[in-house]
Each structure stands twice: as structure tokens, then as C-alpha cells.
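Can you give me the bound-state structure? Components:
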Amino acid sequence: MSGIFYLALRHIRYHALRSLTFVLVVATLITIPLLGRLLTHAAEVRMLSRAEATPLVYGAKGSALELVLAGAYFRGSLEANATMADYRWLLSTKLAQLAPIHWAGSSATYPIIGTDIEYLSLRSLEVAEGRKPVRVGEVVLGAEVATALRLGVGDEILSDAEQAFDLAGAYPVGMTVSGILAHSNSPDDGAILTDLKTSWIVAGFGHGHEDLSTAVQSSILKQSEDLVTANASLPTHIQITSDNLDSFHLHGSDETQLLTAVLVFPDDVKAAALIQGRVADQRLNHQIIRPIDPIGVLLENVFAVKKVLDRVIVALSVAALFALGLVLALSVQMRSREFDIAQRLGGRKGLPALLVLGELSLLCLAALAVSAALVGVVQSAGTEVINAWLLEVVQ
Amino acid sequence: MRIRVQNLSYRYPGSEYALGPARLEVQSGESVALTGPSGCGKTTFLNLLSGLMKPDAGTITVGEVEVEMLTAAQARSFRAKKVGHVFQDFGLLDYLSAFDNILYPHRISAGRHVTTELKSKAEALAQELGVSGQLARRPAQLSHGERQRIAICRAVLGEPKLLLADEPTGNLDPETKRRIMDVLMAEQKSLQATMITVTHDHDLLPLFDRVIDFSELAGVAA
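Here's the bound-state model for the whole set.
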């Protein structure tokens, strides 16, 4: 049989372009459905695992899916309509551990999430480098953010400007990276986590004051012993440092500070039922959602669309296989002279079939190798892409 | 290898005519030229001799082998081991180098392998026929004469005892024809093989031990 494979290899090499086309077409036919299945499965697992790891989400009444996406996945554009008063009320039930979530804005499109120190332990998040934030103006970065923005412990990170020409709006806030989270294969990898006060400052609910006595000379118009007059130059951003930390304060009372959602981790099933009942009974403008419910519905809808796409892919694959079959039949016809010569020279029984099958098997092996390489490359990065796509689709 | 043919008859499906000599004997090591007009059955006769086709009647004995009695598998083995073919169109394959073309029968036949020894033998043979410098080239890169020498190398590499050549010098210029035939005859003598050559070229007939006009011998029967 080695002679057959040798001849098959020679034939493949001689018809290099045709062989390459065949390999690429077959590899594509194998890769697309396989990759679609693998990636959507991985994304499904990842989305469901996040939903399962978040027993309940509390927030303002409205779309359950939007609340879950904002609170648990840091996706969407939900207004912060819950307050610290809601958080304190939930706390007073003593039925669950809580993690307040305030989506303050973004930095290089990565969400800046205000929460408390409990969030890290409730989500079992480990700090791989540095430490947890301990003062206002410090953040910990998700692993993906740190890699993408090439930031390390001690580096500065700036929140995105909300509106470039809104002079009265919130200025970008400069924060310090105190730590980097270990990879958790969850939405936390793509988040910038900080304390609530910092997030409220980033959102424009608080501000600090600049000490003009230490300001740069170009900003000072007039200076006397007890008065410094500054010009109207605008700072590009506000930097929270240990020196100006005390000058930062919030507008309004602590109770009225806004939250996007509150993650609720009930002590047990009974506590979950009780807290759901109490919210339904006493907090008429709010809702408490089991994330698994809207996410389950979302995935059902998405995978219904995928089933249709699968059928289209099957139809295209059949058409492509017919085309390949035709190419193969023509190839066999073109080799009829060789088969006739081989018969005269005493070629073994079924030689034409062996030659064609030998070549076909080598081409298919090459296609499988190409497909495996493509699946490997795409799968390593693709789950994130599909996950992001799934979330984009519903927004 | 002695050839004996008796009362041979072959009729193409749907044809009214049966082709085949009533009696023919070729001695071992003899070179025979078959001549005759197109369609008189010369090529068919070569196919019958090599077991590629089965006669309707009569016997063909090549050496000790009764060719008409061979099964398909035995006939394939007989062709692979005992018969060397030289085709008019050379029968070389475009996708293989000249060297791979020479070794081709050994790659496609059951129970035969391409060994280092066989490769050395092929190289020596190519050297002997003056085409050792062309072995890496493909047939399209060779001249007519070089292609036919490569085809002869392929035919004689397995040291066959029966050489069948179907117009081996067709479409060649007179000088090349003569050179090719000299080479072929030399190899036939060296192998002590019996050679049956179909040819229309009367200039070459003096080179053969015997010339048979197949149209007279075949005895076309209704």
C-alpha cells in the first residue's frame, strides 16, 4: 500500500492548486459547523454558570433580562435606579449576603463597577497580583482588562469621558491599580472593580477640590498670603490621590446614592423564597429575579436561530460535497489513461479505486489537520467573542 | 520464452468477424515483427498474449503458462512478472518524474516493492540507455527519444521474458526510430526475451528475426 500512497502524494503535489482548494473546502465544511457547535456550547456553559452563580438580582422594575445582564454580566445600558436605601432594607432582612453593584462608566470600553469588598469573596475571586482596593481611587482589574490595556499594579487608569464637549459633565477620573484578579473565565475578567464611593465619583455623583496653593503656576492668575485666584483653564481629568482624597465628597445623603443592582446570595432555599416574597410584597417599584430564568429564555431564543443556521450550513455543505464529488468524478475520468496503462502493466486488483481513495484519504487527512488547527486557534479566543456576541444580540 | 498459439479466435462483442491466427509459434528469444493493415487484429493479439483479453476459442501457451486459462488475478500477476510493455505513446504519466515512471509497475503490482536495490538497478539501466541525466524530469520536459528510452527502461526493469511492443517508434524521425530500436533489441538480447513488435515501419523489418504479416496469418472468419 505504500506504493499507492506514494503515487497519491505525487498526484496531489502535481495538482497542488486543485488539491489545496479541495483541502480548504473540506476543512471549511468540517470547521464551520464544528466550531459553531463548540463555541456556542462553551458560551452557553459560561453564561449559564454565571447565572447559576448568581442566585438573585434585585433592582428597579422593568426588563428582567436587562437587570440581569447589567447586574451579573456588566452588559447593557440600564439606568441605576436602585439606592443604598434598598440595599440597607435588603440587609435588614438578614436572609442573605449582598453585593451592591454600581455601574459607573467605563475605561477603554471596559466597565467600571463599584461594589464592596464582599463581592470578591462572594464570587470567589482571587487577587493574582497586588492587593484589594482599600481606599477611594483604587481599582482591581480583571485579568482580561490588565492584559488588553497592558496595565500592572501601581499604574494609573482613566475613566472614559462621557461627553467630550459637555463642560459641566463629569470629568474623567484617574484611579490607581492596586491589584489584578486571577483569570476566572467570567464577566469579572473584563471588569474594573472599585469601591462604591469611587464609582459614584466617576459617575459624577461626587467631586473633590483642587488645592490651588499647590497648583501649577500657569493656572494661577493672582496669589496673596490668604488668597489664590486661578484662571479658567479646564483640567483634562481629576486624579484621586492620597493628598486630595479627603476633599472628595458625595452630593446628597448616603441613602440616596444610586445602585444599578444588588446581587443577593440567600442563606438557603427558604431564605430565597422569603426574600422574593418580601420584595414582591413591600418593594412595589422593584423586582428580584432569578438570573437563570431570563438567561434560559435568552439562550433558547438564540439557539433556535442557531438551529436554522445549522440547517442552512447542512444545505450548503451538501451542495459543496456535490461539487467536490463532480470534481472527483472528472479527476477520475482524466486519469482513465493511467488506469488503462496500469492494467496493462499488471496493476493490482481495484487499483483505480485504491489510487483515488488513497489520494482522497490523504486530502481528507490534510483537511482534518487544517480544521483541527483552525478549531484550536479560534476556540482559544473564540468563546469570548461568541459570549460577547450573544450579549450584544440581546441589547 | 516460447509462444504457441493454436486455433485462436476472438470476436469483439457485436462484430461479425473473429480475429486470430490458426497457428503460430515463436521461439524463445526470437524477435518477431507483426505487420499488416490497421484493424487486422495485431493489437488485439498482443492483448490476448498478455492475458488482458480472453479468446473465445483456442489456446495460447507462453512458456509453461496457458494464458487463456488464467484467472483475472493470475493474468495480472503474469503481466506484472513475465511481460514487458512498450507503448506507441510511451505510456508515461505526466505527474511522475522519469525515475518514478520507470518504477511505476513495481508500485502498483501486488507483492512487488520498490527497494534500494531496485532503484540502483533502475539508475544503472537509465545510465545504459543514456537517460540517467533526465531521471528527475517529468515526461513533458523530455524529448520524444528520451521518453521512449524511459518507457523501455520501465518495460525491461522487471527482467520480463516476453516483450510486447505496440508500434514503439510511431511518430519518431528515422534517426530516432533506428536508435530506439537498437536500444530495444539490445535489451531484448540481453534479457534473452521473446519480443513481439507491432510495426508499420518497413525500414525496421530487417532488424527482426522474423516478420509476420498478420493479415495473412489471422484468417478473418465470418
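A couple of observations. Residues 46 and 128 of chain B are 27 Å apart (CA to CA). The mean pLDDT of chain B is 88.
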